[in-house]
Design the sequence.
């Protein structure tokens, strides 16, 4: 009896600690679009800003790769390396590039909601590969995309071409990440999550650095000091720290509960967009956001 009395508060403390880790992680990820929009107030292009973010995070990627491979017993084959390169390009290079380009045209709030659609895209990709979605999944998809239509319809009526171009670019970002998730399952099972993710991040960083060099030449980027600070904030607060915080939170809560808590992300971005960028969202768009989040949760938590 005494053991049970002691174990309950310990379990509760572990849960609250896990919840705090996931919320902090979601906050960090949600702040990325805010940092990007703030940086765009200075004369800097998307490729240069993305390069600064990845270059500043590179030491941490290298450390994670070294840590995850130092005791690895599973040797990587040529096929493994090709898979890591392909998925690294899709999941982090292309997804990040499309995201940064899209944020030149749309609000941080809209960007976050579009990115949040990636679980629905995973369902659609798996359907193309022969995994038939359930009725609940089809309903969740209809709910999510109806909500997204409301959110987009509530955006400004002026520059419609730029709005749709930005939406398309960020949707491609979400699609690229969904492709990465579908393809990464087998590689994570083979190499381990940390090892595979670290190697994929190194591949993506190499791709970003090469892209910058081809576009701008091998030279030091000429940007204002605040852009360096915002890029460093993106590297640490919105890339490195939330990745490790989320992993720690999942270990304590499980993937299902962590996903449920992390769904606060779009709301956090909307709130931060209002505070730091002066963005506003109409009541109809709040309804659309609620539909998007509900649909994604129906897809994400179907096995919970």
Sequence:
């Amino acid at each position: 009896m005494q053991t049970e009395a002691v174990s309950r508060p310990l379990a509760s403390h572990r849960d609250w600690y896990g919840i705090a880790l996931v919320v902090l992680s979601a906050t960090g990820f949600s702040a990325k679009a805010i940092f990007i929009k703030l940086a765009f107030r200075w004369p800097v292009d998307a490729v240069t800003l993305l390069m600064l973010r990845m270059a500043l995070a590179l030491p941490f990627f290298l450390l994670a790769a070294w840590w995850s491979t130092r005791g690895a017993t599973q040797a990587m084959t040529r096929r493994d390396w090709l898979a890591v390169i392909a998925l690294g390009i899709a999941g982090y290079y292309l997804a990040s590039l499309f995201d940064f380009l899209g944020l030149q045209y749309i609000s941080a709030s809209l960007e976050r909601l579009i990115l949040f659609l990636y679980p629905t895209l995973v369902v659609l990709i798996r359907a193309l590969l022969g995994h038939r979605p359930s009725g609940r999944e089809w309903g969740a998809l209809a709910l999510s995309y109806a909500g997204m239509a409301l959110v987009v319809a509530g955006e400004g009526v002026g520059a419609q071409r730029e709005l749709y171009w930005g939406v398309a670019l960020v949707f491609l970002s979400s699609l690229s990440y969904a492709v990465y998730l579908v393809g990464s399952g087998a590689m994570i099972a083979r190499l381990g999550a940390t090892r595979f993710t670290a190697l994929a991040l190194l591949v993506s960083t190499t791709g970003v650095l090469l892209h910058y060099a081809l576009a701008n030449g091998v030279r030091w980027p000429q940007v204002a000091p605040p852009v360096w600070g915002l890029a460093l904030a993106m590297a640490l607060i919105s890339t490195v720290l939330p990745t490790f915080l989320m992993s720690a939170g999942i270990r304590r809560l499980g993937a299902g509960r962590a996903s449920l808590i992390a769904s606060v992300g779009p709301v956090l971005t909307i709130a931060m967009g209002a505070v730091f960028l002066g963005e506003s969202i109409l009541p109809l768009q709040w309804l659309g956001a609620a539909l998007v989040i509900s649909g994604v949760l129906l897809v994400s938590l179907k096995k919970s």
